[in-house]
Amino acid sequence: MSNVFSFTGAIGRDAEVRFAPSGLAVLNFTVANNIGFGEKQQTLWIRVTLFGKRAEGQLQNYLKKGQQVFVSGELTQSEYKANDGTTKTSLELNANIIDLIGKKNESSQPQQNYQSSGTGAREQAPARQTASNETFDAPYDDDIPF
After folding, report:
1. Among 18, 58, 102, 140, which is most exposed with the fewest C-beta within 10 angstroms?
2. CA quadruple 59, 60, 66, 71: dihedral sign
3. How far is CA 140 from CA 2, 56, 73, 80, 143, in A?
4. How many Å apart are CA 116 and CA 129, to the nearest integer?
């Protein structure tokens, strides 16, 4: 891969799976990424694409509007002419990693992690664990160790 771009954001519309004439599955969705702050804040819309067997899986059922995601992959930029004749720029990401983070609309969903492997197969990483509120009964030494 010539470049890697990673970011977090909210999905702007539900993911769609389509099939190319060759039979290759293509999963598409857009992600809104806020940059800057205050009056200078703006939203970048990035089109995310996932190809092959990973696009055929159940991931589409989790990539719904409003879901927070972490996405990493190869970034490209395309230019096109809008209907009014102006030139527009589109950011597109060929995804290698898609992580579902946070909750969608305050409903509890388990965190999922889908990563690319060299074979193009989808792998589910083990669930992450949160720290518990257990206290340790170990004695504390007040001396500074250096």
Report:
1. 140
2. positive
3. 49, 53, 45, 64, 9
4. 22
The one-character DSSP state at 59 is: G
Residue type, 45: W
Q: Are 42 and 36 in contact (CB under 8 A)?
A: yes
Condensed to tens digits (0 to 9), the pLDDT of residues 46-71 reads: 999 999 998 988 889 999 999 999 99
47 with 71: CB under 8 angstroms?
Answer: no
CA angle, 75 as apex, 53 and 39 as ends, to 5°? 125
How far, in Å, CA of 76 to CA of 81, rounded?
A: 17
The answer to pTM > 0.70 is: no
Structural domain for 69, as ranges: 5-124
How far apart CA 68 and CA 107 sit, in angstroms, is: 12
- Compute the distance between CA of residue 86 and CA of residue 78 in angstroms, rounded to an integer: 14
What 3-state class would DSSP assign to 93?
strand
Q: Which CATH number do you get for residue 27?
A: 2.40.50.140
Q: Considering the domain boundaries, does residue 119 fall inside one?
A: yes
Separation of CA 17 from chain center: 16
